[in-house]
Amino acid sequence: MHPAFLLPIVAICSSPPGSQSSEGPPNVVVFLADDAGWGDYGVNGNRLARTPHIDSIARDGVTLDRFYVCPVCSPTRAEFLTGRYYPRTGVRGVSTGQERMGLGERTVAEAFKHAAYATGAFGKWHNGSQWPYHPNARGFDSYYGHTAGHWGEYFDPPLESDGLPVRDRGYIVDLCTDRALSFIEAHRDGPFFCYVPFTTPHSPWAVPEAYWERFEDAPVEQRATVPDREVLDQTRCALAMLENQDWNVGRVLRKIDELELSEDTIVVYFSDNGPNSWRWNGGMRGRKGSTDEGGVRSPCFVRWPSKLPPGRTVGEIAGAIDLLPTLTSLAGVPRVGDAPLDGLDLAPLLLGTAEGWPDRELFSSWGGQTSVRTTRYRLDSQGRLYDIIADPGQAAPVTVARPEVATRLNRAVSDWDAEMFGDERSADSRGEVDPRPFPVGHAEFPRTWLPARDGEPRGGVRRSSDAPNCSYFVDWTDLDDSLVWEIEVDESGDYEVELLYTCAPSDVGSTVVLEFGEHRLSGTVSPAWDPPLYTNQDTLPRPPAESQMKEFRPLSLGTIRLRKGRGPLTLRALEIPGAEVMDLRAITLTLLP
């Protein structure tokens, strides 16, 4: 392990001076960092960062200098995949089913797949776990990684490959990159669309030791905008995680070089929100979760040696919603679906051929807070206007000096909120289980994973942490307790039931029953399986809001008959001989032939 209007699609008819024309459709590789801020890269002025391979994409390609994403993870991913603002896509949160894109949305992967591209995604999905929300149902032929948001195991992690559980040895970023490299090798004759959504530097703060050793005692001279809130070891660990990520980006770039595909491969790198801790970010205000500049400005670099001029910087504002129309335009791929896009085709900006590019408004929203960015101004979520060109740190409002601009942008925010959220704007449903049922029993994808994060604990049962994504159910002690998943069975049939559980020897022997409608299946929690919590996963102590993980084992409960339709799937205990029933991470239902 090593250290709101559309432009016509632009046809690309010629190459920049000194380049060679591509004879066939270009390959596409998209890297997406998780929780990396604009200021986490050497190319953006961070003197402690070690990101030479990522920086090279900027040096050899085009930098979108004012590029905007969402304040948190799953909304950005939905905007990239669909070219539409996330509220349109059905995404309402980051867990408990609220991260799912509506089934009417069509993705960039579907567009490339329809154009005979091989498509693969390797890493964090975070837009739905069950078919047809799963990446294999959204345009990706191949998928390896985890479909949740936060993942609690970075070393030897339990992941999935096209819906089946796998557990490979190594660090999660290295493992996902290994699969991406194999995909590129297998489809070297192209064309291919390869999406690599990394899991880092999202917490847990866990990085291979060799990387941590190089940062552990490093002086942090460039400090966060709010320096007294910076935890220096978190800064060091984030940069160590990004050095590992950079090494993996380098592996992919080298593979493309070795296969002589560089000239004909579009490479994109960006992040999904602002930094996940207080650390240097160019003096901008805000971090992850904020709609201020520092919470939503992301690096974005686009390289295509045979077409795009190296070292070019684009100053016009752009965002994740623009990537679908831009990539399909550059590759000459028709988009699929007829839903109106919010994004613009940036090809003229990338090529340097744009004339009279219009000013535009880009909206950022999360948790009931909306801000809007124009080429020069940002109106923050409190209605304060800032000249971002003169005041990138949002230190001195110009609301009084420019009342006409403030009035216009306040009206734009009100109109946008009304269009996107309607009456839902007044309610904050984050943390609640999404009312949409979780699909079960599609013949083309017979295995359905129902994790604890998608279920509702009732009675005294609780989650292992406040963050649902990688949690499990604990404190199941009473016969009145139950665990409930609202599901919709697509096909009537017999389903094999498997529980992922742990149980202390003193608690073994509880009788549990799984119920759906008139159908029931009972079984005994046995044998005992009581592994310790992991002590070798984290570089820095894990915060209380994140679950301490352990190894769960499968327990076959038997076969249950499920009838097509919607209703609650309920797991409860009939007998509890010990203090607790078990800890439960997930239920798996597999439709039998």
From TrEMBL:
GO terms for molecular function: arylsulfatase activity; metal ion binding. The keyword Hydrolase applies. It holds the Pfam family Sulfatase. Residues 26-333 form the Sulfatase N-terminal domain. It comes from the Bacteria. Keywords: Calcium, Hydrolase, Metal-binding. It is an enzyme of class 3 (hydrolase). Belongs to the sulfatase family. This is Arylsulfatase. It comes from Tautonia plasticadhaerens. The lineage of its organism: Bacteria, Pseudomonadati, Planctomycetota, Planctomycetia, Isosphaerales. The gene is atsA_24.
